[in-house]
Automatic annotation (TrEMBL):
<keyword id="KW-1133">Transmembrane helix</keyword>
<feature type="region of interest" description="Disordered">
    <location>
        <begin position="492"/>
        <end position="517"/>
    </location>
</feature>
<feature type="transmembrane region" description="Helical">
    <location>
        <begin position="226"/>
        <end position="244"/>
    </location>
</feature>
<feature type="transmembrane region" description="Helical">
    <location>
        <begin position="291"/>
        <end position="308"/>
    </location>
</feature>
<keyword id="KW-0548">Nucleotidyltransferase</keyword>
<keyword id="KW-0808">Transferase</keyword>
<feature type="transmembrane region" description="Helical">
    <location>
        <begin position="71"/>
        <end position="90"/>
    </location>
</feature>
<dbReference type="InterPro" id="IPR043128">
    <property type="entry name" value="Rev_trsase/Diguanyl_cyclase"/>
</dbReference>
<dbReference type="InterPro" id="IPR000160">
    <property type="entry name" value="GGDEF_dom"/>
</dbReference>
<feature type="transmembrane region" description="Helical">
    <location>
        <begin position="12"/>
        <end position="36"/>
    </location>
</feature>
<feature type="domain" description="GGDEF">
    <location>
        <begin position="354"/>
        <end position="486"/>
    </location>
</feature>
<dbReference type="Pfam" id="PF00990">
    <property type="entry name" value="GGDEF"/>
</dbReference>
<feature type="transmembrane region" description="Helical">
    <location>
        <begin position="42"/>
        <end position="59"/>
    </location>
</feature>
<dbReference type="InterPro" id="IPR029787">
    <property type="entry name" value="Nucleotide_cyclase"/>
</dbReference>
<protein>
    <submittedName>
        <fullName>GGDEF domain-containing protein</fullName>
        <ecNumber>2.7.7.65</ecNumber>
    </submittedName>
</protein>
<keyword id="KW-0472">Membrane</keyword>
<feature type="transmembrane region" description="Helical">
    <location>
        <begin position="102"/>
        <end position="120"/>
    </location>
</feature>
Amino acid sequence: MAVSEEQSTRRWSCTGNIWCVLLLTGWAVLISLPLLIQSHSLALGVMLAVVSGALVMIGTGLRRHRPAQPLPWYLLSASAVSFATGTVLRDFTPAHTCPWDDIFTVAGYLALGLAATLWLRPRRVGRDHDLLLDSGLIGLGALLASWTFLISPILQTGATTPRTVLAATYPVLDALLLTLLAHSVATSARSETSLRLVHLGLIAVLLGDLGYSLESAGTTAIEHELLLTPLLVAYATVGIAALHPTMTALGTPRRIHPHRSRQRASFIAVALIVASLVPVVGSSLDTVDRVVVSSLFALLLIGVLVRGERAIQRSARSERRAQYQADHDMLTGLLNRSALLRAPDRDSDHWTGKPLTLLFIDLDGFKMVNDSYGHAVGDELIANAAARIRRMVRRDDAVARYGGDEFVVLAPLGRQEAATLAERLLNAFVRPFELSAGEVPITASVGIACVGPRDCEASIYDLIRDADSAMYNAKEYALGYAFHDELRHGPLSGTRPAPSAPECPASRLGRRRETAV
């Protein structure tokens, strides 16, 4: 199925541009005819031709591409028929058919809204509801502007009749449609050409409805041929969208990244608030207008505040996540080398005035395990070893993965406490590791460097160097652990024998012994 879609897309890319140019040229000529030739019959004929052509293109696209979810396209076809029927009854028949034109128009809105809901529902955003909140803010802002410019003037034009109430209902439906459109735009990708064309058609529908609402409000008088043009553009655009291979994606599940609409909703909501305030400031509002405008303002401002708070929380979480990733090793969750070097300065109260001990831990024979079982098992061993080391130390001690199979523990401990901690760390490796490859026994060697209270001049670099040298001395003579300041008294002085472990390669040992000397 994926191959056929790819081949279909490739064929479209080769010939689609030519067909698009021809279709757009033909539709443009046909749609412009009522504007150039003022004829009622011509406008009706053009509208019927455009609607019929759009339905034929939708049927052709469904038969050619066979989408897994064809229902949204059937609903778009039904919406086009309903809107066209309502337009014919309203603009091209006597006035006594007025209830039916509204019925068909509302049915077109319902079919269009249901189609948008069907193709938006499978687009999962996880637990993030910011996109929904953004779309709701845009809809509320549009509803506020609609009340100010359209609904209130329509209701004030005369007696409250069913026709007037229906005319005032259309801006509300347009605000709901704009909410769905905003959410669909926010969750669409650049590759979804068909969906972007459908968006263009919905925008044309909204523009046409805006013209009808302005005429109903008595704001301006617009010729019927000009009001008809956006609807004709919408029909033609949806028909072309159905011919594109990406029409199969409409209504299919798709994972959405929630970061797409970060600041758009706030800017649009503020712009709509300002646009609504312009005619309100300095004018006298009646009681109904005051209640409605105040309620919509309150809802919109609450939504903007909630959205702003969520944006601040998201930013704070992102900063904490970025800081954690910068300071921690992703395999083990321990501090990395750079964070270890900054540890005494970041929490100076915990280290000031106390002795400082650094334990350098290296796994014996890790290279053999890595070569025998592979890097995946080696990473598994590193992660398990890090977890055991973390359990042996106190919560406030700094534990880091220094690199490869080397770990560092930095703690405010005296000499005797450091020896006790080293014994605990060695005992943590007595029990073999249960890995995916089976039971893997491994031991460790520990080098210890101690200094007095933190008012001395020793740096973390000095402690790492000294503890590294002591660790290689302990590894060479199978001591388990060794203090750096006792290396000059002989390798066995002040150290506890430990079970023999595999020695490191000679080249690496010789290089480290030169550092120790």
